[in-house]
Amino acid sequence: MKIFYLIFFVIFITSAKATSYFFSYGFSNVVLSQDKTIIIPIKDFPPFSSTSVNGLKHVFSASNSNNSYIDLAALQTGVYLFPPNYLPINIKEFGAVGDGKIVRDGVMTASSGVLTSATAAFTSEDIGKSIRVDNAGAVNTNLNGGWQPLAATIAGFISATQVRLSVAASHSTTKAEVSWGTLNPLTTLQRALDSGYTQRKAVYIPTGHYFIAYNGSLGCNLRMKPGTTLYGDGDASILERDPANVAGYTVTNNSLTEFTVDTFARNYTVRNLQIRGATGLNSNFAPGSGYDGGVFFSAQPTLINKVVVESITVTNVNKEGIAVWYTIQANISKNHVSNCNFDAYNPAGINNIIFVNNFADRVVFGTEADLRDNTGTGLKTQGIYDNNVFTNVISYGIRIYSGDDILISNNLFKDRGTNTYSGFQDLGIFISPEPPSPGGISTKIGTLKIVGNIINGFYNNSIANSNPTTTHLPVDHLDIKANTIINSGGPAIQLSSANSTAYLWPDVTITGNKIVNWNKQANGSTAFSAISFTLVTRATVKGNRIYSDLGGTGRKDPMFVDSCVDITFSNNDLTGSATSGDPYIKINEHASHPTLRLRVFNNLNLKGTGL
To answer: Which of 254, 307, 318, 396 has a Cα at 20 to 30 A from 588?
Structure first.
């Protein structure tokens, strides 16, 4: 078969006289253009959907001057190429310059403007370029201190390892991250995006490091118009904000007046880019000043039909890393957000969301689950949050506001393990339903499944809730299953209400979990049990492995029950708890709300119940 195709190529191409040659070899409808470019169309879907984006096109040299045949061995598997009618808009065609560089060995001395880097390879052509030096700027007045980045321009060339900056350092620093490059006028990049909109083509950011100049009220914000797609070559395509001006978001959508009833025109896609802010969390893990974010799409009252944010890296931002609001469908996947002084991810007011394979590190908040039927048609709201990683989280890993059907599965949540900032919840999974919002849109949680997650080291609770009200039940059906919950500062699982007038939590199932070491704040105080219930209507706790090896002087009770209706604790294994007191189920009673039924049976190493 391969011999047949090779003969087909040579005969067909040699005899062709047109400006483009058509043949087939493992791909359908391959085009060999006159400029010796092989273009491979992607059938049945826009070409920017490919998971392998290595460039606008790939050029192969023909073996002779008249292009009679092409070297098939040069064809690289996975190279992403386009048919002529799908050729994207390349920002370099509009004059964009991507000459930025990053090193991580910067050295500056306070009150001096000299920057030293052994790896920078500075040249005289760097004079006049914008530059950012971490931890060399003014003192950070937020929270626990630290230092801001230094924003300057390169004023003088000294050597390949030294330059003189326009601003002296306020703070001495070593091993600092330094980035510098030519500032691109915002209008240059915006014209490329606008052209993609008018021509219905994707906009391509080729490999390079592109600094975006500040432009007054427009900030450094690239405004995508509805129906457009923006993509690059992954982390090799970098957008960095003007270090001296940090307001706004790097990639966002345009004014709502440009929305139309055309479904296609209400879609946005951003893929395969790195976005660098100018602030974020500094070396002392303190939030910086300013208001800059990564990707932000929002619309009210007109809804966005669909948003896809995939394989985006966002770092050093002081607001949301990736935010999508008021959208019927959202796909947020394979992204990486770090050094973020707010929500790493903030999907809010979404009808249907797929949130998978994302990563967050050194962030204040992980993500949110806020699902609402914005269409007013009774459309079921659903969310899948699967196989994500949240590490070095200051506050919560995920906060759940609302949704008819939510699955949180196979995620890793890991706290910093210390209560660094007062006022933050410091929880792994935070169930936080709110009353109906203005306009009557319900924010009720229907079915919530928390399955197969690893939750490690949160200073307060691993799974807990805010206090619901009598007019707004927290969750209709809550299923906590097969999770591993380790080193909780307080209870591993806490479901409660501060309202003393009604039983809440109508249907709770906690099964097959492994709960190890809770109550670490007090190291053995009787203040916290592994599972804590207050004003819970019905719950089954069955088949869990619950033990503590912390030692200490106090008991490590597996469960606390306060004013509940119907609780079953069965078939749980408490073997191995290294405590000075025997494990009990602790009971607390309110005169107006006694616990009506508590069934306890078939548990290993449980010594009883007590007040």
So the answer is: 396
